[in-house]
Amino acid sequence: LARAKKLRRLVVKHGWKEEDRRIAAELIGEPLPYALHEGMFLKTLLEQGTDEQRKLFYERAEKYEIIGCYAQTELGHGSNVRGLETTATWNADDKTFTLHSPYLTASKWWIGTLGRTANYAAVMAQLIVDGKSCGPHPFVVQIRDLKTHLPLDNIHIGDIGPKFGYNTMDNGFLLFNKVKIPHVSMLARFSRVDPKTNQYIRPSSPSLVYGTLTWIRSTIVMHAGAALAKGVTIAVRYCAIRRQFRDMDAPDSVVEEMPVLNYTLVQYRLLPLLAATFGLHFTGKAMMELYQENQKSMQANAGKGDLLPDLHAMSCGLKALASYTAAEGLEVCRRACGGHGYSSFSGVGGFYADYVPTTTWEGDNYMLTQQVARYLLKSARAVLNGESTSNDTTNFLTTFRSRSDSAPVFDVLNFDADLVQAFAWRAASMTFDALKKRDDQKMAWNDLLVDFYRLSKAHSQYLVVKNFFESLSALQTAGSLGTETPAVFRKLFQLYTLHTLDSESSDFLLSGAVTVRQIEQSRTTIMRLMKEIRPHAVRLVDAWGISDFQLDSSLGRYDGKVYEDMFHRASELNPLNGITIDSNPNSDVLFRSVGGENVKSKL
Amino acid sequence: LARAKKLRRLVVKHGWKEEDRRIAAELIGEPLPYALHEGMFLKTLLEQGTDEQRKLFYERAEKYEIIGCYAQTELGHGSNVRGLETTATWNADDKTFTLHSPYLTASKWWIGTLGRTANYAAVMAQLIVDGKSCGPHPFVVQIRDLKTHLPLDNIHIGDIGPKFGYNTMDNGFLLFNKVKIPHVSMLARFSRVDPKTNQYIRPSSPSLVYGTLTWIRSTIVMHAGAALAKGVTIAVRYCAIRRQFRDMDAPDSVVEEMPVLNYTLVQYRLLPLLAATFGLHFTGKAMMELYQENQKSMQANAGKGDLLPDLHAMSCGLKALASYTAAEGLEVCRRACGGHGYSSFSGVGGFYADYVPTTTWEGDNYMLTQQVARYLLKSARAVLNGESTSNDTTNFLTTFRSRSDSAPVFDVLNFDADLVQAFAWRAASMTFDALKKRDDQKMAWNDLLVDFYRLSKAHSQYLVVKNFFESLSALQTAGSLGTETPAVFRKLFQLYTLHTLDSESSDFLLSGAVTVRQIEQSRTTIMRLMKEIRPHAVRLVDAWGISDFQLDSSLGRYDGKVYEDMFHRASELNPLNGITIDSNPNSDVLFRSVGGENVKSKL
After folding, report:
1. Which of B83, B154, B170 sits opposite A603 (nearest CB)?
2. Residues 392-431 of B with CB under 8 A from A
3. % chain A with pLDDT above 70
């Protein structure tokens, strides 16, 4: 909190813009207690408030006169927003709402910034008008006294306790005991209760709300590459410094140990991740461009965006794939650092723990895959019925239909474009398989979830491969990078793509996109590519230019002074070393002396 | 430390045996600072000390008059013990050794119990006699004053700082600046320096040292099933309680949400792990029995054990597979708990962080796979040359050789014995492939490490499948469990095995053990098996009888009172909730009040 306050004061003092603030917060490198105020609370007020409500709440919040949080998730309800139990009942008599938590499971839970910091909350609650439920809606409510910071009457708030990562954020809980709030508290830009007629008025265009979630997921895709890049930088640099064992085939005259990055088994863990980082980066960029394009088309067409269904499905599938890849990848990087990966000085462990919730929030990665499958099934039905509009998805589905009788031959080891085609083929084949099971065999939705999960992954991997390929082609055409760099990028593309193909080989084999022999050969090609990429590995991560300050890692230092820094932090900076304890089990004394004389150094 | 002291005093007070102490330590459920004294220090003194040294050191250590640690790993050296840099130079003049750390990278590092607790250390150092290095040997040396607990002169000790997990253990570092120690300090049961002749005397039987490591790895295999069982118990119980969304195909009249364990995508993540727990358990048991058998045979044959190479390879490969399965599985269990999996009250996150170093210590999981490959290559060469003794490994290799021309047909979907055969076939095929690459194509060892890694995994998975199958057959023959329980176990065996087969399908396809069509069908069978196992899932984990005290989890409670317990811990037990902060960014005050009045509850 102290850091968050300091940051806010710097923003005011120097007149930083939102972009500057975001960069500064990123540099601090840990979740800050104002984050949900700045992210969700302000955004909700701005997007869902009327002009009057913006004046009343947003303007004060923007100046930090009030500090808010966004209270949606409940103890018993996460993914299923429609199942929320907190109620907001309209009182026709006095034109107020009553907020109430009828069960323990209705406690708002996990709410960032709520635990200790916020004095306001945007609360999602089931609106009840005239005894009928109108679904969840947002309400703004004061929860703590602005002077004493104590909870208001009939409001029970607290911090939910320690977590796996993210412990600098005060996630909290919140219960209401019949708290009355005025009519103006319901954010009414899209739907509202008419105080005169006591009627509920529906939103005109629900797709606008849709848009915000799509935006958040797109940023997660964009950010995943950057998060993984941190871990890859640390692991690649340290493995280039660290030596262990002599080469098994080296002549006896060689006494020097090998840098561990020269071992193919270490390369096999790290270099595909190095390649994935680029794939995620290009995909995130393409995703953001599509988002902007859709925003423009929506403004031009009065809120109707043709791209929205594609964008929504893409953002769901890629959010799941990208955050999974980054989270798993960070843990692989940490373990590739050997024993020292477990030290907090590695800079990877804590960062992993702070990153990994990304796989669960803004749509659980497993849940989201149903959205992708639903979209692909719908597209496939349209293709079958000849009703489809032309876009990339319907195109690859149509191609598959037209060629599925003649067994295709994709020359995945010699032509990069064929590699992309093979990924499209696999996704299309799995789409029609799933459609047959659902529409022809009438299989239960629940019995298809594993198929849907695989399908979503296949489709998202196709998107990454396609975007990676197209971005490289554009770079090559532009010619600004010369010839050598694009050649290395091309190898990274092949490594990422063949490595994915090998990992998912059964899907590819079942769809007939490749043969068993090609899988075998792709393994040989992967070994060759790694050997070719190895000499560039350190320069590639250096090129990202992530500063030592951001990495906060002894192992990933740019200057390679790994052991000096480890020793300095352990021996000089570690406060534990000022303490002398009593280790005799028969003594009740635990601490003999704390601080004072320098007890450790006697050299 | 306070807990460790208390435990030791209870041991003395009640006269507990070693077995009792181990159970009590297990119940405490966190790493204790005496652990390395009790595990490694005492064991080293007992096994490697002469009678005189046992009297001098072991007897005092056993009474906790001295507390020791085992100092092997160095800042710059982990896996490669021969590369250690700490030296112990024999001084012929005064019959002493000089311990010295010539470089910063020679600092002993990660040494458990050393950071704050130990006053003695068993130090592995390069013995130098007459200018020649004789390799690493163990020395016992006092490092802290027994009264003041301050480090002795010319010894630099400290704690290495915070870690990813395992923070209740005081891992430390240690440097020597030319510290003289007497002749008796070198543990001399196997090799020694003769003080009269100043000659180094080699160990007679190095395989005895081998034995200890094998034993440690065997216990890791045994323990992996138990560790995973904790995570599976928590996740299965919570997913049976937690409800989210209605079934997509349910009629509108159904308003109740479904327990998430009914979703096939949740089952797909948890039930194979439930099955794996049993597989690991039976394998660990078989491994321990083999270890005992080998010990007997070694005693009968004056230290020569025919089983030792098998046992060594098996312990390496299974240690890697089992600890990997348990570590990954725990993280899958945590994430299957959704948002609440991130709460410390889930009981999984911290346990994962404490468990995951198991994948790195006692032989890094990746490094170890080379040992397995070396053993399999050697066995395959023996088979080719007709020189092999008959054991399970040479048997399956011989079978493969004799049948590899006639394409085998394993009916993996209908006969469990065929499933086991298919796993053996894959391992044999990969062994001969690797042998061809190494011996015929003369490929570099380093270029084969990825193949060796795959080979080791294939062989270890075969061992788990085989032991699982044989244990079930024995159970069925014994008949003591009736018929229903073995039938459920049989389904668990099939689920584990087919799930593994699907995950590793390219290996199986490349070896010709199964067809693409069989892979496709196995996916359908997996869905059917999960549906059949689901009704038994909660009873299966309940049958393990892990107490609520051991689980220490709101989510995994036996009585299912998940939300009540979450709320109680957050609202009543969380000390943060006694603190009122000042969230105004313009105020320098952070804490308004700490403790005192009950500030949160106003209901």
Report:
1. B154
2. none
3. 94
Considering only CB atoms, A450 lies closest to which of B247, B248, B527, namely: B527
* Per-residue model confidence as pLDDT tens digits over A515-570: 999 999 999 999 999 999 999 999 999 999 999 988 989 999 999 998 888 888 88
Query: Whose structure tokens read 């990992």?
Result: A503
- Cα distance between residue A100 and residue A175, in whole Å: 8
The Cα A123–Cα A235 span in angstroms is 42
Average pLDDT, chain B: 88
Q: Which amino acid is at B58?
A: Y
Contact criterion met (CB below 8 Å) for B280 and B225: yes
Annotated catalytic residue within B362, B520, B532, B564 = B362
- On whether the CB atoms of residues A330 and A227 are closer than 8 A, the answer is yes
pLDDT tens, residue by residue, B401-425: 988 777 677 999 999 999 999 999 9
In DSSP notation, B198-233 reads TEEE--S-THHHHHHHHHHHHHHHHHHHHHHHHHHH
Q: A353 CA to chain B: closest CA distance, Å?
A: 9
* Per-residue pLDDT reduced to its tens digit, A432-482: 999 999 999 999 999 999 999 999 999 999 999 999 999 999 988 887 888
Mean pLDDT of B163-191: 88
Query: Does residue B314 surpass a pLDDT of 70?
Result: yes
Residue spans in chain A of domains classed CATH 2.40.110.10: 31-204
Query: Would you state the pLDDT for residue B9?
Result: 73
Closest chain B C-alpha to A481 CA, distance in angstroms: 32
- Is the Cβ pair B446, A162 closer than 8 Å? no
Contact B342 A155 (CB under 8 A): no
Tell me the mean pLDDT in the region B94-101: 96
Q: What percent of chain B has pLDDT over 90?
A: 56
The residue count for chain A: 603
Of A157, A527, A570, the CB nearest to B447: A527
> Which CATH topology does A31-204 take?
Butyryl-CoA Dehydrogenase, subunit A; domain 2 (2.40.110)
C-alpha span between B294 and B288 (Å, rounded) = 10
| Residue A83 backbone dihedrals phi, psi, to 5 degrees | -90, 5
Instruction: For A263, name the nearest residue in chain B, comparing CA atoms only.
Output: B446
Number of CB atoms found within 10 A of residue B22's CB: 13
Would an 8 Å CB–CB cutoff place B597 in contact with chain A? no
* Distances B403 to B56, B131, B398, B512, B513 between C-alpha atoms, Å: 61, 57, 9, 12, 12
CATH fold of A210-539 reads Butyryl-CoA Dehydrogenase, subunit A; domain 3 (1.20.140)
Determine the Cα–Cα distance for residues A289 and A307; give it in Å rounded to an integer.
Answer: 12
Q: Are residues B570 and A357, on separate chains, in Cβ contact within 8 Å?
A: no
Distance CA B289, CA B297 (A): 12
Residue A362 a catalytic site member: yes
- Enumerate the CATH 1.20.140.10 domain ranges in chain A, comma separated: 210-539
**Who contacts A145 (Cβ-Cβ below 8 Å, separation ≥6)?**
A119, A151, A152
Which residues are A90's β-sheet partners? A97
Nearest to A389 by CA among B522, A150, A398: A398
pLDDT for the residue A598: 43
Q: Provide, rounded to the nearest whole percent, the portion of chain B with pLDDT above 70.
A: 93
Residue A106 identity (one-letter amino acid): A
Report d(CA A86, CA A92) in Å as an integer: 19
Residue entry with tokens 């003591």:
B480
Q: Residue B364's closest chain A neighbor by CA?
A: A338
As a whole number of Å, the CA-based R_g of chain B is: 28
Scanning A385-483, the segments in alpha helix (DSSP H) are: 392-403, 416-435, 449-478
Contact criterion met (CB < 8 Å) for A247 and B117: no
pLDDT given for residue B81 in this prediction = 78
Q: DSSP letter at A186?
A: B
**C-alpha torsion sign, points B500, B503, B508, B514:** positive
Residue with tokens 């590519």: A529
